[in-house]
Design goal:
With 316 residues, the chain is α/β, with parallel strands linked by helices. It has 6 helices and 20 strands. 20% of the residues lie in helices and 33% in strands. The protein starts with a strand and ends in a 6-residue tail after the last strand. The structure holds S-adenosylmethionine. S-adenosylmethionine binds at residues 121-122, 125, 148, 150-151, 153-154, 167-170, 173, 197-198, 218, 220, 223-225, 229, 231.
Length: 316
């Protein structure tokens, strides 16, 4: 099927097969909520609230000056000399070792200061989870797949619309995700918790002839499967997206891909989707994820790039 590409910039549409690619980037900015907020940022750091606890973490993209003169935090993650890893938490007051409960809507989860500088969930993903729920509005039996699912906040949000398959290479992350399901009182929902390499699992699902209504994937730049399988985003993403496409069909509703800490444009992600989704209808959009600071003069802190495919032409 021939479709127009509107670049939104030059106003000159191109005729191509496949979904409509909206070439002008979108901004998907998340606001804070009761249990999370970006209080301030600047001078290469950010100051956030996680429930009653406040932390400072490194943030290389906060190039500006902080708005507040003082950041009274319970703890700070001080990076090592190596940009990609290392570093440690220092605390000014004791913080619960085993974490503390937070909520986002109906989903409850444990926040915790992890050795990897994260707090056990990624707050910038909130607008992504909201968008996926909107795509599945009114559905109660939509089958979805969450690859690189981490501690399961996205999975639990998707589970309101039907069965979810959650895949992550880390036994510990999947155990935390299951604990978050218990905490949310959602342990009885039809969720398959799978410890596996995302690429291997997707390929196996293709061989089994499986289909999904929606897929989300949030791959790291570099990772390892449970048996040491190497994941390098630039090298392995095209084949994984091709398998994801084989798991979707004319009746499927979305694919959402987020990528962070990589030298890449969201337009490149959109180009990959456009290539692979050529036989499907729908729309491809791309852009940046950001978190909006608390307060009236709030600024936007960019966190990741994304591309997504959605289908509003489901055959009846
Ligand atoms: C950034 S996290 C995803 C965060 C998640 N979307 C969220 O917002 O909660 C990336 C995850 O990828 C997992 N991972 C890394 N390499 C993997 C692989 N080869 N197969 C499956 N999962 C992998 C890690 O264990 C980690 O949990």
């Amino acid at each position: 099927m021939a479709r127009r590409v509107e670049d939104g910039l030059s106003g000159s549409p191109l005729i191509l097969a496949g979904p409509l690619l909206l070439a002008a980037p979108l901004l998907l900015a998340g606001d804070g909520w009761d249990d999370y907020g970006l209080i301030d940022s600047g001078h290469g750091r950010k100051f956030e609230r996680y429930g009653a606890w406040r932390f400072i973490r490194p943030e290389p993209q906060a190039l500006w000056r902080p708005r507040l003169s003082e950041w009274a935090a319970h703890g700070e993650f001080v990076p090592g000399s190596d940009e990609d890893g290392g570093g440690r938490w220092t605390f000014t007051q004791p913080v619960p070792d085993n974490g503390w409960p937070l909520a986002l809507g109906a989903v409850k989860f444990t926040a915790q200061c992890t050795p990897f500088r994260h707090l056990g969930f990624f707050p910038d993903m909130a607008p992504v989870w909201e968008w996926m729920s909107a795509q599945l509005d009114g559905q109660e039996d939509a089958a979805t797949l969450n690859l690189f699912g981490y501690t399961g906040v996205g999975t639990l949000s998707l589970s309101a619309h039907g069965p979810v398959t959650h895949v992550d290479a880390s036994k510990k992350s999947v155990a935390q995700a299951r604990a978050n399901a218990e905490l949310s009182d959602m342990a009885q929902r039809p969720i398959r918790w799978i410890i596996d390499d995302a690429s291997k699992f997707a390929a196996r699902e293709v061989r089994r002839g499986k289909r999904y209504d929606g897929i989300i994937l949030d791959p790291p730049k570099f990772g390892r499967g449970p048996e040491g399988e190497v994941w390098r985003l630039e090298e392995h993403l095209p084949a994984l997206i091709a398998d994801c496409r084989r798991l979707l069909d004319q009746r499927s509703r979305f694919l959402f891909l987020t990528v962070y800490a990589v030298r890449m444009s969201s337009l490149a992600l959109a180009g990959l989707l456009q290539d692979v989704f050529a036989e499907l209808p729908g729309t491809i959009e791309h852009g940046e994820l950001a978190v909006r600071e608390d307060g009236d003069d709030a600024r936007l802190l960019p966190t990741a790039i994304f591309a997504r495919w959605s289908n509003d032409q489901i055959p009846v």
